[in-house]
Design a protein that fits this description.
86 residues, mainly alpha, 4 helices, 0% strand
């Protein structure tokens, strides 16, 4: 984004919205990492059901993030076809 803006392009409401929606997906992904990074899978207290549910949620968050990133990349790529001042 910084390089794109440094070449004279400026963000639009649409690019800003996509970017901030991408940022919003970061916290759940980090929470998952924090929750399971110290889990001992051999511990009798460990409940695999939680892990399965959380993995499903992570899959949904990642799918959403990838779609948003693809949309943002498409917007930026399309804007490159029409440089500022052209």
């Amino acid at each position: 984004m910084e390089h794109w803006q440094s070449t004279g392009f400026s963000a639009t409401k649409e690019t800003d919205n996509l970017y901030y929606r991408i940022v919003d997906t970061t916290e759940p992904l980090l929470d998952f990492n924090d929750k399971f990074s110290a889990v001992d899978l051999d511990d009798e207290e460990y409940d695999a059901t939680d892990f399965d549910q959380d993995m499903s949620a992570i899959g949904e968050w990642l799918e959403q993030r990838f779609e948003l990133e693809d949309s943002l990349i498409r917007l930026i790529a399309d804007s490159l076809a029409h440089p500022p001042g052209a």
